[in-house]
Write a structure and sequence with these properties.
255 residues; alpha/beta; Rossmann fold; 6-stranded mixed sheet; 10 helices; 6 strands; globular
């Protein structure tokens, strides 16, 4: 049996997505639209004939709920599930909870865009005493404090996401299984960057729309059987996917 497959799924729209707020590690539920997107993702995977052997999510409710709803719609409500903090969204530091358009008005479009999209420039950090710092959240009590971010750039997210996926996901893919990874815009951008060997410049313009499964076919290559991407595609209607991707880019008022 050859290697299996990997499916990336960005959670459906959250209530803070709908309000155009920087969310990061702040835990918010799905909006009504997000619930519908999650269910549609499962129906899309079902129509494509996918069967999932393992589901891996972040610790944030918008991802875990998307995962649950998608699996139900796929017709696989009982699948082994692993949740890991390393798949959480990028921590937006002091920006968490701020309106994206207001942030542009206050700090300028160029600076805001660098905070949002640059590879190695984090936003201002959140204060260590703030409830927005994960060290003050009991869900992360098992994580060494030095590993918990006060703010992150995408480069930071790549480090933790790749470590998580290499540990929890790729052994199953190598064994021929299909793994669904349900996470967030930036944690999935980080993973796609790794899988597709994107440069920092390429990943800056890369957007994964909410609720649209991204399917990777994996193969073993070379003498050591190194895993590599044999093919990648979004599942679903092409026009709807293009419209959803454009909507991500417009969140701060830019194109």
């Amino acid at each position: 049996m050859g290697p299996g497959a990997l499916v990336l799924l960005r959670h459906g729209e959250s209530t803070w997505n709908a309000r155009n707020l920087f969310t990061g590690w702040h835990d918010v539920p799905l909006s009504e639209r997000g619930v519908a997107e999650a269910r549609q993702a499962g129906e899309t995977m079902r129509a494509a004939g996918l069967r999932v052997d393992l589901a891996v999510t972040s610790l944030l409710a918008r991802a875990t709920e998307t995962n649950r709803l998608a699996l139900e719609a796929l017709g696989q409500p009982v699948v082994p599930i692993v949740a890991d903090w390393r798949l959480n969204e990028r921590h937006y530091g002091a920006l968490q909870g701020l309106d994206k358009r207001e942030t542009v008005a206050r700090h300028g479009a160029e600076q805001t865009e660098r905070w949002r999209r640059s590879y190695d420039e984090p936003p201002p950090p959140v204060d260590a005493a703030s409830p927005e710092h994960p060290a003050n959240d009991p869900r992360y009590a098992h994580v060494p404090r030095a590993s918990l971010p006060a703010a992150e750039c995408l480069r930071d997210v790549v480090v933790r996401v790749v470590a998580c996926v290499e540990e929890l996901v790729m052994p199953h893919v190598r064994a021929g299984r299909t793994v669904l990874v349900t996470a967030h815009g930036n944690s999935l951008r980080a993973l796609a960057m790794h899988l597709e060997a994107m440069s920092p410049e390429q990943v800056a313009g890369f957007n994964i729309p909410t609720g649209v499964p991204r399917h990777y076919r994996i193969r073993a290559a070379g003498v050591g059987g190194r895993l590599e991407v044999a093919g990648v595609e979004y599942l679903g209607d092409a026009d709807a996917i293009a419209a959803a991707t454009s909507a991500v880019r417009r969140q701060t008022g830019g194109a």
